[in-house]
Amino acid sequence: MPNQPKTPKRGFRIPTDLYEAAQAKAASEGRTISDVVREALHLYVEGTAAGGAGLKS
Fold it and tell me: Burial, 42: exposed, middle or buried (Cβ in 10 Å; 0-12, 13-18, 19+)?
């Protein structure tokens, strides 16, 4: 199918206030929340996310 996404859809839980703030910031930068999450996960996996500073489970 021509309009199929190239990656599978994933799901996770996140507090509403954090999600809305991230969505607003991403939109102000002309990005999608998916772009932001992918970048954050790349940084996390590579160990370059400021030494894990600010990353909470």
Answer: exposed
